[in-house]
Amino acid sequence: MRAVICHAFDQPETLTVESVPDLAPGPTDVVLDVHAAGVNFPDALMVMGQYQFRPPLPFTPGAEAAGVVTAIGAEVTHLRVGQRVATFAMTGAFAEQLCVAAATVMPIADSLPFDIAATLPLAYGTAMHALVDRATLAAGETLLVLGAAGGVGLAAVMLGKALGARVIAAASSDEKLALCKAHGADEVVNYTTEKVRDRLKSLTGGKGPDVVFDPVGGDLAEGVFRSIAWGGRYLVVGFAGGEIPKLPLNLPLLKGASVMGVFWGEFAKRDPRANARNLGQVVQWIADGTISPFVSERFPLEQTAAALRAMLERRVLGKVVVVPAGR
Ligand SMILES: NC(=O)c1ccc[n+]([C@@H]2O[C@H](COP(=O)([O-])OP(=O)(O)OC[C@H]3O[C@@H](n4cnc5c(N)ncnc54)[C@H](OP(=O)(O)O)[C@@H]3O)[C@@H](O)[C@H]2O)c1
Questions:
Q1: Are 212 and 235 in contact (CB under 8 A)?
Q2: How far is the CA of 150 from the centre of ligand 1 (A)?
Q3: What is the C-alpha separation between 323 and 327, in angstroms, rounded?
Q4: Which residue CA neighbors atom 36 of ligand 1 most closely?
Q5: Is 220 in the pocket of ligand 1 (CB under 6 A)?
Q6: In this predicted model, what pLDDT tens digit does every residue of 4-33 receive, in sequence order?
Q7: Does ligand 1 have an atom closer than 6 angstroms to the CB of 217?
């Protein structure tokens, strides 16, 4: 089978696509034919050696995928060959085949396209965990989403609306904000051209957003925190902007507000049932038309580096996927 290989922590363009032996499952594993693999910012960080952990080299990047089960381990009883599934694997998904622990695999309905299913575990799992388990976002509250047209950002916009919040989407361009509007954002803020604090003040009648979902970090964070409502919750999701912001601790005190860390991978490991419940809700909302996850581009396996480069250069709208030839 063909797989993307990372031989050294370096720029995405150093990745190669090679023929490697077919995969065989261990007793508790399944092997699937990958039909689509979701591309996430952490994939790019991992390839460059800048993620929280460095896999042993060489490795195949790609954290999540959807496809069809082709082999099951001797101890696996709840899955069958031929079943359509999605899974989070952390690495290995940018390939024609993926071997994962059967416990991480989620069966998917025939009506759910592979490219949508492949983008659900990480982005939608993270956004659900942040909004529901961490912030307990309530209907009628105001949610501000930064980086709102990106992978986790657009997921948070859609899920925030599904949970009954008033959603303010903030992003760097009018094209990105139009996408957020099309996916349900009530209000938009362009943080390249507008004064964010003034705009938040006027959009919330001076109260500020109750919940902030921040996958960007950097310069924006402190000003936005200064705008948060009394009792607000600031969700620290990621630092796509590159800088980890520092916050004076008098600000949470003055606002009676909380800074909440969001670490979906650890949550999913520690509480797989709660994660499965969250993803089940996401799939239900897709099925009944409440949300419509958006995949803007499909890259062939050979162009995985281009997909990662688009992500690093802030060009991705919603999600993009890598698709092996012929799938
Ligand atoms: N905590 C968790 O469990 C968890 C889970 C998944 C992802 N994450 C993190 O969440 C962040 C977003 O991930 P994602 O997959 O949604 O990425 P993404 O699709 O690329 O979205 C990131 C957004 O950040 C904004 N951004 C600002 N400065 C940027 C820069 N210098 N380079 C790239 N983007 C920049 C961009 O929006 P604008 O152009 O509109 O500013 C972009 O749409 C990453 O830091 C990732 O590691 C965390």
A1: yes
A2: 6
A3: 7
A4: 147
A5: no
A6: 999 999 999 999 999 999 999 999 999 999
A7: no
The b-or-e profile of 28-46 (16+ CB within 10 A means b, else e) is ebbbbbbbbbbbbbbbbbb
Task: Indicate whether 53 pLDDT > 90.
Answer: no
**3-class state of residue 301 by DSSP:** helix
CB-based contact 251:226 (threshold 8 Å): yes
State how far the Cα of 85 lies from the Cα of 73, in Å rounded to an integer: 16
Task: Specify the ligand 1 atom closest to the Cα of 267.
Answer: 3
119 touches ligand 1 (CB under 6 Å): no
* Mean pLDDT for the stretch of residues 42-53: 95
Tokens of 29: 């594993």
The answer to whether 25 and 71 have CB atoms below 8 angstroms apart is yes
Ligand 1 binding pocket includes 125 (Cβ within 6 Å)? no
How many whole angstroms separate alpha carbon 157 and alpha carbon 144?
9
Q: Which residue in the block uniquely carries the two structure tokens 């592979």?
A: 114
Strand, coil or helix: 271: coil
Cα separation, 169 vs 190, whole angstroms: 9
Q: Quick check: pTM over 0.70?
A: yes
At residue 144 the predicted structure's pLDDT band, cuts being 50, 70 and 90, is very high
Give the pLDDT confidence of 269-312 residue by residue, as tens digits. 999 999 999 999 999 999 999 999 999 999 999 999 999 999 99
